[in-house]
């Protein structure tokens, strides 16, 4: 019984993963159109799915919304992105808070070569 249940759970998680991808694709499309209220809604939905099915939101997507107020970031419109001392610093124009992401994770392979 438990094995059957686990198999089903895996299917749900795969669907959840696809839905998160799809929601962020929509959020990006509407964000670029200026319909930010829709983008924010899609971010909220993606987060709900992520929490319900314990599917982490991919890193490339977590950087596209504010960690504090979860609004979708459209560079120059709702966020300002700067690079300072090896950190990507994004400023949210809505809640006026900063998020810092280290650059090292990506550049480590480049520095070694
Ligand atoms: Zn914010």
Explain this structure.
- The protein is 55% helix and 15% strand.
- The protein has a 3-stranded antiparallel beta sheet, with no helix packed on it.
- Residues 107-113 have low confidence and may be disordered.
- It is an alpha+beta fold and 113 residues long.
- A hairpin with a 5-residue loop joins strand 2 (87-92) and strand 3 (98-102).
- The protein has helices at 2-33, 36-52, 59-62, 104-112; strands at 79-84, 87-92, 98-102.
- Helix 1 packs antiparallel against helix 2.
- It has one domain: Single alpha-helices involved in coiled-coils or other helix-helix interfaces (Up-down Bundle).
- Zinc ion (ZN) binds at residues 66, 68-69, 71, 92, 94-95, 97.
Short note summarizing the structure:
This protein is an alpha+beta fold. The chain has one domain (2-112): Single alpha-helices involved in coiled-coils or other helix-helix interfaces (Up-down Bundle). The chain has helices at 2-33, 36-52, 59-62, 104-112; strands at 79-84, 87-92, 98-102.
Any chance you could write out the topology, listing elements then pairs?
Blueprint: H1 2-33, H2 36-52, H3 59-62, E1 79-84, E2 87-92, E3 98-102, H4 104-112
Antiparallel strand pairs: 1-2, 2-3
The protein binds zinc ion.
Zinc ion binds next to loops.
């Amino acid at each position: 019984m438990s094995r059957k249940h686990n198999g089903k759970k895996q299917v749900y998680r795969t669907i959840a993963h696809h839905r998160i991808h799809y929601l962020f694709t929509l959020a990006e499309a509407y964000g670029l159109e200026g319909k930010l209220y829709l983008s924010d809604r899609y971010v909220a939905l993606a987060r709900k799915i992520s929490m319900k099915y314990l599917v982490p939101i991919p890193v490339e997507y977590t950087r596209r919304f504010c960690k504090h107020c979860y609004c979708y970031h459209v560079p120059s419109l709702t966020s300002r992105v700067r690079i300072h001392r090896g950190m990507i610093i994004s400023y949210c124009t809505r809640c006026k808070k900063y998020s810092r992401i280290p650059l090292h994770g990506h550049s480590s392979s480049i520095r070694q070569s």
